């Protein structure tokens, strides 16, 4: 069980976040929640960000786990092609950590192999 550290209000709903900013309840995720989380970080989500968030959500639906960096690169390559399926491309979108930040914005738990 994840503990709540704070909440954000999105479309009139209180969304519980854990101490690292991940959703306490994955069922709370909506595109508006992703936009609110990104906005808190000073990030505007582009179409390229949304493509990766969609790949992350599809990966989670299939494997019931958020991918660490290497599986994320492979999943993006398979879904979006060679040009986008590289760690350099993902680092441009999510400079801090593509797997961690992407998972958080996609409403997924923190990848297990990420520090």
- The helicity comes to 40-55%
Q: Briefly note the structural class of the backbone.
A: mainly alpha
Q: What would you report as the Rg, rounded to the nearest angstrom? A: 13 Å
CATH superfamily label of the largest domain: DsrC protein, C-terminal domain
Major sheet: order of its strands? 1-2
Number of domains: 2
Shape summary: globular
Number of helices: 5
The beta-strand count equals: 2
> How is the main sheet built?
2 strands, antiparallel
Q: Which H/E pattern describes the elements?
A: EEHHHHH
Kindly report how far apart the N and C termini lie.
19 Å
Overall pLDDT confidence: 94
Residue runs with pLDDT of under 50 for 5 or more positions: none
CATH topology of the largest domain: Arc Repressor Mutant, subunit A
Report the top-level CATH class of the largest domain.
Answer: Mainly Alpha
Strand content: 5-15%
CATH architecture of the largest domain: Orthogonal Bundle
Textual characterization of the structure:
The chain has 115 residues and is mainly alpha-helical. It has two domains: 6-40, Dissimilatory Siroheme-sulfite Reductase, Chain: A, domain 1 (2-Layer Sandwich); 47-105, DsrC protein, C-terminal domain (Arc Repressor Mutant, subunit A, Orthogonal Bundle). It is 47% helix and 9% strand. It has five helices and two strands, in the order ββααααα. The chain has helices spanning 31-40, 47-63, 69-80, 87-93, 98-105, and strands at residues 6-10, 13-17. The chain has a two-stranded antiparallel ribbon. β1 (6-10) and β2 (13-17) form a beta hairpin. α2 crosses α3. It is globular, with a radius of gyration of 13 Å.
